[in-house]
Design goal:
This protein is an alpha/beta fold and 432 residues long. The chain is built from 18 helices and 9 strands. The strands form 3 sheets. The protein has a 5-stranded parallel β-sheet with strand order 4-7-3-8-9, sandwiched between helices. Strands 1-2 form a two-stranded antiparallel sheet. It has a two-stranded antiparallel sheet with strand order 5-6.
Length: 432
């Protein structure tokens, strides 16, 4: 009898898991079966989503053999119809949360009239494809991220529109995440006359604009020579290989990293409600290494390290297209590191960027809020050392040790060493 009940229980669990996977696959497929309209800037090629097909009985996931065959055909087709890049650069700032990516992204956002910059467009994709329990299907998300990045670098917002909620009407939306963080979306001709028609959660900060017309945004993007996107949602660098090899792009990837101890300290402030476990562990309780929150931090560190190892090895598909930069180096030498990043991309380092850096790296502590891009940057680097309990520091060093060693972060051996300003926890490294 026990065996019979055990088999029944296993069967029920398996059915639940399969149902969840089918739900997310159906969700993606439904979003990608688009109806084109006269205002849609481009047609979407079948190349971008070859792993899903719709048949009479629902969604069918292609087998590996079918997928491989379809992809080879489409790569041949792509090479014969696409035009190579004509001099413009496509920059992806790759990071994780609380690494200073919003601040560093401004180095490109402030470039001037020849740069089209987008702030976290993949936020919509993650939000749409997150399951009710908070989990995600990593394979589906990875494919969606990669293909939407390609479309955005080609100035096509069509696929992204399918993930925006509420859905845009006639390619006009009030809901593009953090629109105000992109100068390109808050200046003419994209900034349309302001008409108050309900609440707009992500409005332009320095200028009142009407709801975002994505057709105008696409046209404006096409008129700019360079395009940059900032994202904290790409987990593995290898997923970008097809973009690096696409003849229509001239992709440059800048991976921004930060001391994992500083990242955790920052997240505990910025996302306080998500880090209650960590706060209780600062008391007398032991930190359980098998806790889900600890495993997530370890996984995050491993993803960062593995991506960096791939990039630093410079495989043929990434040669000359990858740069690793530490937030600490940028914070201490913002002008120098910004100049290095621009030299890497091959784009002129403009006066507008230099002036922005001078204005925004010497701000007072009052101006430097949790989400602010105004920082007294040199003072921010080691601030975490005097607020983070040594107990948590020791745990981070244990689970993120290989990542810290790769990037040149020194372990604090004691609480005294942690808070001693005369001891640097940052080793000199040259990743160029």
């Amino acid at each position: 009898m026990k065996i019979k009940y055990t088999i029944s229980l296993v069967f029920i669990v398996a059915v639940v898991i399969i149902e969840k996977e089918n739900n997310i696959i159906s969700k993606v497929s439904d979003k990608l079966l688009l109806k084109q309209t006269p205002q849609t800037p481009f047609q979407i090629s079948r190349y971008f989503w070859p792993s899903f097909q719709k048949n009479g009985s629902g969604v069918q996931v292609l087998s590996k053999t079918d997928f491989s065959s379809d992809l080879k055909h489409e790569k041949w087709h792509l090479k014969n119809i696409s035009e190579p890049s004509k001099g413009g650069k496509h920059i992806l700032l790759l990071a994780t949360t609380r690494t200073g990516s919003s601040f560093v992204g401004e180095f490109f956002n402030q470039h001037g009239s020849n740069m089209f910059y987008l702030f976290e467009p993949l936020w919509h994709v993650e939000r749409m494809l997150t399951l009710e329990g908070g989990g995600t299907n990593g394979t589906v998300l990875t494919q969606a991220y990669r293909d939407i990045l390609l479309q955005l670098f080609l100035c096509d917002f069509t696929m992204l529109e399918t993930f925006i909620e509420p859905a845009p009407k006639d390619h006009v939306t009030k809901g593009l995440f953090r629109r105000g963080s992109s100068q390109s979306l808050c200046t003419d001709p994209v900034c349309t006359p302001f008409v108050k028609k309900g609440y707009e959660p992500y409005h332009c900060q320095n200028r009142r604009c009407g709801p975002l017309n994505l057709t105008l945004a696409s046209q404006s993007c096409l008129e700019k020579e360079h395009r940059a996107i900032k994202s904290v949602r790409i987990r593995q660098l290898e997923t970008l290989q097809s973009l690096a090899e696409d003849p229509r792009l001239d992709l440059k990837v800048i991976q921004l990293v930060r001391d994992p101890r500083a990242m955790l300290a920052s997240r505990m402030v910025a996302f306080s409600y998500k880090y209650e476990h960590w706060k209780t562990w600062t008391m007398d309780r032991d930190i359980p290494e098998d806790d889900n929150e600890v495993r997530k931090l370890k996984g995050n560190c491993e993803n960062i390290r593995m991506s960096a190892e791939v990039g630093l090895k410079q495989p043929p598909w990434l040669r000359g297209r990858y740069m690793l930069v530490r937030y600490e180096d940028i914070a201490m030498f913002p002008m120098l590191k910004a100049a290095e990043m621009y030299r890497f991309t091959g784009i002129p380092f403009t006066t507008q960027v230099k002036e922005w850096i001078l204005r925004n790296t010497q701000a007072s502590d009052k101006a430097s809020g949790v989400y602010s891009t105004q920082k007294n940057s040199s003072q921010q680097v080691e601030k975490w050392r005097f607020s983070m309990p040594f107990k948590l520091v020791r745990m981070v060093q244990k689970i993120c040790g290989p990542t810290m060693k790769l990037f040149g972060y020194t372990f604090a051996e004691s609480e005294e060493m942690l808070t001693d300003k005369s001891i640097s926890l940052l080793q000199e490294r040259n990743f160029l």
